[in-house]
């Protein structure tokens, strides 16, 4: 395979897998690590991929910095966090996703004896003084844009746990793409958690409905409920009901709608 053709195939491979390590690419294309690094640098220079620790990934789309998102709709996010925490029972093993909404679960979980698995550094900082919480970090490379720990290849650390409930953040919820997010580096983690968890809850304020982001990490029929201040889209609300997804509107109801 000539160099130009190989580089084009590498680009297609990364687009398909969202993120790839140099080791995997070297094995896939049967060339040395040095050759892969040179080919990858060519794609980086063309802004077709971006560098990540140990590999390359598709450029992120629609993801602003954590600090820029943190103050948006704060009152709604706090109410959503409280409602989500109310669903957690003593003894639960839960996963808390990265995000500026999921972090609001922290102050409402302080007195519950539970195990929290998380890749959310902000949550860890907020909950570190809560003696009743057993917090397990997923570890891995730290991504400052999401304040999260990520992993390119190894998700065995997550799938080894029996997760009762997963509380997931989303960049967008749409009729066309279901539940989406904008960070390719978190894609494998999010998908693995949804598959492993007995129940998956999506925490999303009204601004997320009708939006579509880079990747779909869950379909409507894979989630238990959406916790929100307002669905803000009748079409999506109908689709959620048809998929038997419960809707918890924090500004209207105290209990989960059946």
The chain-level structural class is alpha/beta
- Strands of the widest sheet, in order across it, are 6-5-4-9-12-14-15
* CATH class placement of the largest domain: Alpha Beta
Q: Output the number of helix runs.
A: 9
Report the biggest beta sheet as strand number plus sense, adding barrel if it closes: 7 strands, parallel
Q: Count the strands?
A: 15
* Helix coverage percent: 25-40%
- Run of helices and strands: HEHHEEHHEEHEEEHEEEHEEEHE
Keywords: Transcription, Transcription regulation
GO molecular function: DNA-binding transcription factor activity
InterPro entries: Carb_Metab_HTH_regulators (IPR050313), DeoR-like_C (IPR014036), DeoR_HTH (IPR001034), NagB/RpiA_transferase-like (IPR037171), WH-like_DNA-bd_sf (IPR036388), WH_DNA-bd_sf (IPR036390)
Protein name: DeoR family transcriptional regulator
